[in-house]
Each structure stands twice: as structure tokens, then as C-alpha cells.
Fold this sequence. Notes:
By secondary structure, the chain is an alpha/beta fold. Helix content is 24%, strand content 33%. The strands form 8 sheets. The protein has a 19-stranded mixed sheet that branches.
Amino acid sequence: MVTLEKIRREMERLYEDDKARVFVEVSADSLEEAMANAAVELSVSVRNIDYEVIQRGVNGFFALTKKPWIIRAYQSVKKLSSEEKAAVEKEELEEQKAEEVIPDKDGAAFVFFGTDGVYIKVVPPSGNGSPVTFKEAKSRLRERNVQNADEEIVKTAVEKQAGNYMRVAPYDYNPANNPIMSVDITDQEMKAWLYVTPPGPGGADLSSAMIIAFLQNNRVTEGIDEEKINAFVDSPVYKQQYLVAEGVKPKDGDNAYIEYEFEVDRTKVKLKETAEGKVDFKELNIIQNVVEGQPLARKIEAKRGKGGKTVTGKYLEAKNGKDIPLPLGKNTRLAEDGVTILAALNGQVLMLNNKINVEPVLNIEGDVSLKTGNIMFLGTVYINGSVEDGFTVKATGNIEVRGSVGKSHLDAEGDIVVGQGIVGKGEGVVHAGKSIWARFIENTKIEAGEFVIVSDGIINSQVLANRKILCQGKRAAIIGGNLTAAEEIHAKTLGSLGGGSETVFSVGFDPHSKERLDELNLEKQKAEKELGEVQLNYTTLLNQKKQKAEFSEEKEENLKKLGERKYVLQNEIEEIDAEINQIQDHLSTLKMKGKVSASAKVFAGVKIIIRDVVEEVRSDCKATTFYLENGLIRYGKYQGPDEDMKRVPSGYTSN
Length: 655
């Protein structure tokens, strides 16, 4: 039941709480800044402050006069339950023990002349220090001319080593001979020095309470070092300046800065080691690829300054850190957090004019050589020179080479355009997800997802195109090699005089499926051969076991292994047959007719394969188109090129 007495007691408690609180009034341009200043003056964190608004600030565009925010702030008091208080105290004690390093220090005895008698304090040792003995305590008393000390009390103080003063003797106190104190405030009120003259006969020593009261009465109200004052009480320092208080210097806030997630300095080359521990000078890693949505940099925001205080209690303002703009460049965007820069597309990240840019096109001004290293780029690569032997260029977009390509490896998800020729020297490989353009191709393995278009000729190369191989120009000849296209192969001349190099043209089917079919047939032949050998050995050992002849553990183990291998091979052959049937069904449903055309001449010895029908040209023929009709390859009248001969890669010229 709520009674009048309970209400009165609660109001008294609230009044006492309010009376005990320390209030400060501060003004600033914003509420946040005013709270921060109040936190410094109260020496607490912002979250532990309660405040009242005395004046609301006005700083708008239409305001006639600018007004600062004025608040009255005080430390908020949070009531803790007994369990919470015990947990906090336990945690603080554990943290203190974890951080505390106990030094080795001997115990000590101190003598103090109070106004009502002589006192002694015995401090216990720490670490491996030695404790104070009774003899040492008596010696300290004799040093202060104390002859009438109660030895029993001295012994008790030595035994307990409680670290507090115990009265051991009276003396004739003379207040006129007490020490004289003065204070000197220096360093723009940031330091306070105590100067004390020693007491005369009968004068008392200074207590810490006396010193603190003297300092506060002489304008020193902040930064008082009680530990130093207690040390002075135990071991006074007379006729010297003794530092007893220090102000808190203001700390300016840190400026904002950018934390980059990539190497900003492009001159730093990171060489890569091979598995043998040798440095691979072709792997320079100077291109920094990024994908869409990848974080590139993050702004660490400016920090607020932390104000200070002089020993006289004056507030010292600190400067807030300076903000900086985000270096958003081309093809970048800002994340939802407002401070993280993301890539807006795939490409190369680099700094240009102090801004972060993502370039979807990589420009190589010269050759791809030891100077550039191998190239791997998430975008399009433009090479103004050539690609030297032994180097690799990979791109998720297109690759354009203004010069030539040597014994190299080019791989693009888009088109590959070579201004001059491709000379692979039997080891070069060029693969394009779409089409390949070149002036000529020689001794190179070529694979294109759509077209291979050459102006001069193709010599002794393995070429595969998912649609067409088109070769048209003054020297548009295909001599030697194995060329496969799903729809059509077209050139000016096919083969060579005398048929020195075998030239094979395959059309009318899905080349990848056909290639896989050939691989499966080889795998099946190999598996069937091994199965025959395993079956023979398995049967031989099984017959020996049935005849109950001597059959060792080793033979039993071999019989088991052969049985397991036979089972694995049978399953492999079944899986291969299933895939072969699937591919054959796919090839039979294709409607591609397939044709091979020569606008000028076809030399004898050329082999034509349309679907699964093979025809070897017996004699030279002119302007011929080969096609399949009624299961036979026909020699028809030359059919001119279609519109695909005029194709040019997207985004490039056809010169």
C-alpha cells in the first residue's frame, strides 16, 4: 500500500540524488557537439549523459540570427541489481588480475606526525620483496626523534603490515611550525606544482586531505594525482617543485582516409614462383581483375575531436577530423553503407586522376612479352603489337591483336581478331567462345564457337568451328591439316599440287559431339581390350580353385582383385555405350546438310567427310561444291559465298 510516508521518503531520496549530481552547461553549434563537450567536462562517455535543452540551436538557411545549442548535462545513474553489481565487480577484478604484473619490491615503514600524535604505517612487500622488521620500524622512528613510541603497537603494525597508520606516541604539537605550502600553475595552466617548506619543531606533517583542500582552494580542481600526493605524505619532498596535477590535452580527431582493397601503385610487380621454386617472369601479376559487386575501397570516416581541461577546470576545445570525398570513378558505384566503393562491372581496377576506375578494356601499347608477362583479364584485351612465343592471353571479352601471334595460347569468351597471321609452330593454341578472324593461320590448333574467317590461307592446322570456316582472298588456300565445321567450309583452293600434305575437311555434324564420340570409341576399345585380359586371368584362376589344386592366399587375393576389376570395367563399358548411343541419337536428329566449296580449284588427294560419308578426290576439279545426297557425296556446281563471308567482329573494323 502506498502511504504518505513512503512518498515522502522517495521524494527525499530523489532530492538527495539530484543534489549529489554535478551539472554543466555547454553550448555548441549542434546537439551532438554539445553532448560531446559535456562528456569531456564530466569525464564520462556520451552514452552515460542525461541532459536538458535550455536553448534550441538555429542554423538554417532562412534563420535571421544564428543560435547555438545550450544544454544542461549531468551523469546518468543506472541502478544495478545486487547480482549485476557482483558480476561487474567480479569481471573488473579478473581483468585487473590479468593485467596486473606484480614487481619485486621490499616492504617499507613510514612515520607521520599528525596533530594528535605520531603514527607509523607498515606497507607489505610485493613479489619476492623482503618484509619490514621490527628493528627497521624502530629505526624509522629514531630518524624522526621519536623516543617514546609504544613498542607493542609498533610490533602489531609490523606483524599486520596493514598499510594504514597506527598511533604509537604523543608529542607536543605546535601549529605555528606546520609546513607552509604554495602552488605554481605553469604550462598554460596544464600543470600544477606544489612547493612545501619542512615543518619546524612540533609541527605536523601534511595529510593528503590537507594538500587536496589547499590545491582546490588555489584554483587547482582538475587532474589532481592522488597517488603522487599519497606518496608525498609518506615521503615528503621539501623545498622542491613537486608535480601534483596535470591537465588533459585536447586531442584532435583523425582525418578521414581511404582503405584500398587493391594495389594502388601499379609499379609494384609481384613475381610468381613455379612449383620448383623458380621465378616465373611471365607471371608479373600487374593486372588487377575485379568482378561486378566486388569491394574496391572503403572510407574510414573522420573522428570527432576529444576536448581537454586545464588544471583550473577550463575546457579546451579540440578540432574534429576533416572529411574527404569518395574517389568514385568510371564504372564504380557506392554500396548501401555509403562508404564502400564497389565495381559496377568486370574489368581492371586502377587509379586515374586520384579516382578509382574499372576499365572493361585492357590496352597493351606494345607486344605481349617479358615486359607485360602473361595476360589474364576480365574484359576485352587490345594489343597494339604482337604476342611473342610462349605467352598466354586470356580474356572474358574479346582479344584484338594488331600484329601477329606466335607459338602462344589465346583464349577468349568472345571474338579473337588478329591483324596479321597466327604462326603456332605446331604448339600454338587459339580458342574463342565466338569467332576468330586472322589474315592467315599456320601450324596452329584453332577452335571457335561460331566462325573462323581468314583472308589469305590456312596451312597445316587443326581447325574446328561450330558453324563455318570461311577463307576468301587472293591467296585464300587451305593446304594440309584437319578442318571441321558444322555447316560449311569455303576457300579459293583446297589442297595442294601433288597432295604432299594430307588435307581433310569434315562437315555436316556437331564437331564437339563428333570429337567426343571419337574419344568414347577409343576409351571403349581400350576398356574392352583390358576386360578381355582380365576375364582370361580370372577364368584361369577360378578353374584352378575349382580343381582344388594348391591355391595360396596370394592367388586368392589376386582372384578377388581381378573380380573387382572385371566388375568396374563392365560398368565403364556400359556407361560409355550409353553415352555413345546418346550422341549418335543427337547427331542423327541434326538437320545440318554440310558442304565444302572451292571457288577456284580442288586438288586431288583432298579428303571430304560429310556426316559419316567419306570421299577422296581422285582428280583435280575446278569451282566445285561438295554436298551429300542419297548417302553419296556429290560434286556440284560451285555455290558462291553467302552473307557470312562479309561478317566482321562486333566493335571492330574490317580492314
